[in-house]
Design a protein that fits this description.
Blueprint (H helix, E strand, L loop, with lengths): L10 E4 L24 H10 L3 E7 L1 H4 L5 H19 L5 E5 L19 H10 L7 E4 L2 H10 L2 E5 L17 E3 L2 H10 L7
Parallel strand pairs: 1-2, 1-4, 2-3, 4-5, 5-6
Helix pairs in contact: 1-6
Keywords: Carbohydrate metabolism, Cytoplasm, Hydrolase, Magnesium, Metal-binding, Zinc
Protein name: D,D-heptose 1,7-bisphosphate phosphatase
Pfam families: Hydrolase_like
């Protein structure tokens, strides 16, 4: 007797620098990690509602030699361990693009946001429902990556976006400056959520 496949799970895809943590350019030192206000608690609320939590990050510093793969791995481990210790959040994954952009700033790979490759790969690996998922990031490249992957997208407006290049795929479904509001919005959109 074969078992029916498990239903795909929705996810909250979260950019790291400027969204989950305060942006310190090219930081790979765990001692310099500082959460955006209320971010761990917001992720905990979303995770309790059944969403997978996946960090999705561009890390051109690897290609540019600003830090090593081993240094970044220590940082990645520190993010996961601190989220679990401080908020009870167990990350489903922490995926990243190690490539630098091209000379024009555009991606030269399929994984650097605004390309949707990281989200699509994580969804395939973990059985995630992209159409029921959200991407939260501090730039319109994050918004575009989410929308191109088939997710809804929230701009966490912490000042990371400086270009504001418009486009239909770069228009967020919502825009907030507060993680409590992000969590409230995502939870209010869940099927069966109280009106």
């Amino acid at each position: 007797m074969s078992r029916a496949p498990a239903a795909a799970r929705p996810a909250l895809f979260v950019d790291k620098d400027g969204t989950l943590v305060v942006d310190v350019p090219y930081n790979a030192d765990p001692a310099r990690l500082e959460w955006q206000p209320a971010a761990p608690q917001a992720l905990a609320a979303v995770a309790r509602a059944g969403l997978a939590i996946v960090v999705v990050s561009n890390q051109a510093g690897l290609a540019l030699g600003r830090f090593t793969a081993a240094e970044f791995e220590r940082l990645r481990r520190a993010v996961a361990e601190r989220l679990q210790a401080e908020a009870g959040v167990v990350l489903t994954d922490f995926v990243f693009c190690p490539h630098a952009p091209g000379a024009d700033g555009a991606p030269v790979c399929g994984c650097r946001k605004p390309e949707p490759g990281l989200l699509i790969d994580a969804a395939e690996r973990h059985g995630l429902d992209l159409a029921a998922s959200w991407m939260v990031g501090d730039t319109l490249d994050d918004v575009e990556a989410g929308r191109r992957a088939g997710c809804r997208a929230i701009l966490y407006d912490s000042g990371g976006e400086t270009v504001w290049r418009p486009g239909p795929m770069r228009t967020p479904h919502a825009r907030y400056q507060d993680w409590d509001e992000v969590a409230h919005h995502v939870l209010a959109q869940r099927p069966g959520a109280p009106a």
